Amino acid sequence: MSDSLTPPTPPTPGALALCGGTVVTGLDPVEMASADVVIDGDRIGAVGYAPPGVPRRDCSGALLLPGNVCAHTHLYSALSRGMPYRLAPPGNFLQILQRVWWRLDRALDEPSVRMSALAGGLDALLSGTTTVFDHHASPNLIDGSLDVIASALDELGLRSVLCYEVTDRDGEDRAAAGIAENSRFLKASWPRARGLMGAHASFTMSDETLEACAAAAAEAGVGVHIHVAEDAADQRDARAGHGCGVVDRLQTAGVLTGGALLAHCVHVDARERDILLASGATIAHNARSNMNNGVGHSPLAGGGDEDGRGAVALGTDGIGGDMITESQAAFFRAREASARTSPSWPLARLAAGSRAAGRVFGEPLLGRITPGAPADITVLDYAAPTPVSADAMAGHWVFGLSPRQVRDVVIAGDLVIADRRSTRVDQAALAAEAAAQASRLWARLEDIPPHDFTPQGGEAR
């Protein structure tokens, strides 16, 4: 525990003190203190002792953590849980896209996009996630779709980084519309939403579209959020159609910048791995999704090798918003690859996600509980059976923490989850409306055939 505590300061209007807890002030490296956390507006005013007159929330026996960041997700999948499936079972990754996800995204309309954002965003909040990087697709609702999502997430109080998935699989006009939607949104002003330039993947994009995305991103001063070599089909398409691998193609197009967010990066060799790390881009590792789709394990994600430590963050790829469970699953998958993988491995990657979000928001202290940092905090009721210290925190995280323990969530100084309930929406009413929208969405899906887009170079297997 740290003994260097901020001295008392006079109370200010709108202040709130989270009192009596054990505070994890940073994850990489782990730093802790037994302290009160004083929130002043949207900032952390002090970590020490709450002065008299500040409204207090009792956190005795609780664990206070920086809010988690999900570095890659697809909120539009939130209404797919339990979705009926009557086609032939997919036999490879491409068929999963053709028969499931590229049908679902064509079924989306404005009400289902909004409800997907509300349901997926609330799921994230209730598990202690305070920022999501969302990668959206709705080919029949492109214009204004990012505003629909931003409005829903703003209603919940969630922080987000949004983009529309540009692709040629639905035609050149929709690809152009996707670039225009990203460019429009990047000029908009939302209190807790920012943007990146979205792109699906190399294997569904022409050179012209890929280069247009990179150019639009450079003009806006942002990075490109794109899937990279998630499956071997991506590499085969690049080699068959463009005479090079995916990473070289992205580098030539100008996609690999320090602001880029590269999801998956599974099928890359050692040379490509070095190019990705040298670019300064953030790599979003999605362990549960990779296992679910059977695409493999990224050489950038564990196995005892810490070279990519600062660059690799964690995402869910649409499997909910729970980063506690995701980080634990990612650790065990990395541990399976190499017993040298330390329990501190997932904490370092969660910290990388916070740094990525901090760069987008212009908040270098995001992901820390320290004076001046954005007040994004998760409070857990964690009755530890063993001592909790900085040295032991990684072990507690991997083997003891659970999203069920999340009691309160603060984002930008606002208490958006209190005693496991949203302070902003009626959870029961939201669940009922989500079920109704899911039924509508599933009914429309029945009339949508598998997508006929196929990359060059043949199927995955």
Characteristic key phrases:
461 residues, TIM Barrel, alpha/beta, Urease, subunit C, domain 1
Descriptive report:
It is a single chain. With 461 residues, this protein is an alpha/beta fold. It folds into two domains: 107 residues, Urease, subunit C, domain 1 (Roll), CATH 2.30.40.10; 294 residues, Alpha-Beta Barrel (TIM Barrel), CATH 3.20.20. It is 36% helix and 21% strand. The strands form three sheets. Strands 1, 2, 3, 4, 5, 15, 16, 17 and 18 form a nine-stranded mixed β-sheet that branches.
Biggest sheet details: 9 strands, mixed
Strand content: 15-25%
Helical content, roughly? 25-40%
Quaternary organization: single chain
Uncertain stretches of 5 or more adjacent residues = 1-11
Shape label: globular
Distance between the termini: 53 Å
Number of helices: 13
Summarize the entry for a quick read:
It is built from 13 helices and 18 strands.
